[in-house]
Amino acid sequence: MAHPLAELLVEILQSRLNGSLRLSHHNSKTIIYVRDGEIVFAVSNQRQHRIFELLLQAGTLTKEQIVAIPEFTNDMVLVKYLREKEMFSASSLKSIFTRQIEGILHDVIAWKDGVWTFSPLARIKDDIHYKIDIFNLLVEYGRKVPKDAVVRRFKSFKESFGKKPVPPSQISLLPQEAFLLSRFEQSYLKIDDIKSLSGLSDMDTLQKLYILWLAGFLYRENWDTAFKEHQVSNIASAKFELKKEMPAPVQIETVKTVSPIQPQKQETTTKKVEETIPVQVKAEITLEKYLARVENAETHYELLDITHKATTEQIKHAYFGLAKRFHPDLFHKQIDAQTQSRIQHAFTEIAHAYEILRDVETRKTYDFKLRRLLQELERLSPEERSKPKVEQKVLTEASEIFEHGFNLLMEEEYEQALPYIIRAVHLAPDTARYHAYYGKLLSIDKNQRFKAEAEFQTAIKLDADNPTFRIMLAEFFIQYNLPKRAEGELNRLLAIFPDNKEARGLLDSL
User: What is the pLDDT of residue 351?
Assistant: First the structure.
């Protein structure tokens, strides 16, 4: 998933949301119910999470006893039967449900792809509330995430963290985690400051920081949230009226092509939202024109179809006008899955543009980065510049991060450089230069030499006419005593660039 479940749960907890988080992964479907940000219940369609399976696994009941119970596959019916027959106490049944919920969470938190939707409309009854030890589960997850994957979970190294005044209870931190937490005082610290205080390597610092945040010890600012500010505000301030049938949930994010979980029919509430901001939408714009414009827009201003001189009020009018006209909910079940995905993506794009441009400070920063991007584009080849859509923010951030990592590499601060180069590759995977220097960093460790070669080959594939990358690959072969492969690479380079003195010199040295 673009946003792992562990991170979604942290956001839901911090924002104290009410509703249900619905997840789908291949044939597995799960619903997690939350109240004031806390997980109170969860259900799954997987057999291993059924109550009767848990009872069989624990040896509490035999198979013969289970099959003798009517509708034993229905958890609620089974529990009601066990209670009425006084086969289990109320506390024992509550413990079984708690174990079931924790088992469901343990499985779904490991999913790497799928679909998630959040609905504030589908809520569990008030008398259903199970106390779930979510923080220990989040810590366990965080410790298993590979270090290079953790680096990609940071939006930028300008994120900041602060210590919570009341930490979660019953969490056993490892020595390095506890030491890093002890470095925090009352003020917020940026990642660069934290690294200098931690006494750990950059990648170890980021991993421990990620764990402490997941575990509820730290606040986090300026990170890539899944729930944007206006979405949280709408959920919290929505008015409800009683309905007999549950509407489809609002889809917040879709990853891969998997059908979202459909809600069951039951008594619940529907959201009644009245937008008070006046809007103006160009009457002639069609859905297809809107999608085409969003998909080809190169700036946030083009996304909202406004000028660089637009006022804050004009920005609001543009966004809310488009949201009213083209919100994904308006097209639910009316169109094919591919078009629905395009609509969802477009809405995410315009919402992000609005979040950036509506605030004076973030707009100034964006405009500055936009100017920087224009300078960066001047360095690209004509083929790269002619790509249909260039994500300005991502390219600018990747360039800044790479330059910092490259400077550390040149100073032979290899371990410090690695997370920056990894992040740049992740943000701009089509940039050959980033892959080449990632390969150079990996080549320092003989255990990573095959991965290093793959990065060099990727760089050459992305930019076959750049002799620098072929020379770097030849030097790599020489480093690992593979002269024949180095000779072959240099001969291929000289066939294209016969006057390249550096390649000729290396070949002669062989």
Answer: 83
Q: Are both 320 and 397 inside the same structural domain?
A: no
Tokens 């714009």 -> residue? 285
Residue type, 425: V
Cα 352 to Cα 345: distance, rounded to the nearest angstrom: 11
Distance, in Å, from the CA atom of 121 to the CA atom of 189, rounded to the nearest integer, reads 37
H or E element in which residue 242 lies: strand 239-243
Q: What is the average per-residue pLDDT within 400-408?
A: 83
**Whole-angstrom distance, CA of residue 50 vs CA of residue 154:** 37
User: Which tens digits make up the pLDDT trace of 287-309?
Assistant: 888 888 888 887 888 889 898 88
H or E element, residue 31: strand 28-35
Find tokens 């696994």 and name the residue. 57
Question: Any idea of the CA torsion for 157, 319, 308, 367, to the nearest 10 degrees?
Answer: 0
The verdict on 37 and 117 lying in the same domain is yes
Q: How many domains does the chain have?
A: 4
For the cut 80, the answer to whether the pLDDT of residue 370 exceeds it is no
Q: Measured between alpha carbons, how far is 484 from 83 in angstroms, rounded to an integer?
A: 76
Pairing of strands 239-243, 189-190: unpaired
Per-residue pLDDT tens digits for 413-462: 888 888 889 988 888 888 889 999 999 999 998 888 899 999 999 999 88
> Left (φ > 0), alpha (ψ -120 to 50) or beta: where does 114 sit?
left
- pLDDT band per the 50, 70, 90 thresholds, residue 397: confident
DSSP 8-state class, residue 219: E
Using only C-alpha atoms, what is the Rg of the chain? 27
pLDDT class of 242 with cuts at 50, 70, 90: very low
Alpha carbon of residue 105 to chain centroid: 18
Identify the CA nearest to 205 among candidates 243, 151, 246: 151
- The answer to whether residue 96 is domain-embedded is yes
Which of helix, strand or coil describes residue 71? coil
Residue 395 and residue 428 in contact, taking contact as beta carbons nearer than 8 Å: yes
CATH assignment of the domain containing 291: 1.10.287.110
Domain enclosing residue 198, as ranges: 156-221
Question: What pLDDT digit, counting tens, does each position of 258-267 carry?
Answer: 323 333 333 3
Q: Evaluate whether residue 480 is within a structural domain.
A: yes
Cα(276)–Cα(298) distance, integer angstroms = 30
Q: How far is CA 72 from the centre of its chain?
A: 38
